[in-house]
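Incident log, structure service

09:12 report received: a user says their structure output differs between two submissions of the same chain.
09:20 pulled the input from the user's history:
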Amino acid sequence: MIEQLEFGVYPEWLALPVDQPADALVADIVARFAGDPKPADVKQTVAEGLASLRSQVVDAAGDQLQVFTVWVLLPLGGELLSPRAAAFGAVAAIERGTTPMELVESLIGDAPLHQPVDLQELATPMGPAHVMRARTFATTEHGINLSETTTVAWLPDDDDIAIVLTTLPVDDLVLASDASSALVGLAETATSAAPAS
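09:34 re-ran on a clean worker, output below:
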């Protein structure tokens, strides 16, 4: 499925392909945002930071996830190099019959839930998907910190892999809502030449 997977244009998501060398990725980002009024050295620093973020996401994914793209959410219109949130797409190794809840639990790990996971269905050109919003918390000396992660997953009934798009945890819950909506919008552009399950 992954070889035929494509995403349409969504201006606010900047794709960071995992197979592109870091130097080339940085150069492409800087060139793409030539019209951004930020100083050149600032754009260079941001681009290098995004290349580093991509590497960290891939390294952190572990054996369960094969990351194929990292995305960064930009301000409305996608014209400014001002990252707001990040997400990644991956192929997840699962057991046949894995439920959406079991999948999202494996993605958030040991982070305790602040409230039950919100689970919804989503119709996409690639077939039906599940949208899961998980709000977790961490207790610190300053109180409780909340964060939210949104995952869109395609779970074929007869396969041992799933396609997932998931945001990195977002601490600003207003921004988390924006990132969730944008991730769903991205998922709605997904197409595949492989038969949908």
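09:41 both user submissions now match this output. Likely a transient worker issue. Closing.
09:42 reviewer note: The chain has a mean pLDDT of 89. The longest strand covers residues 127-140.
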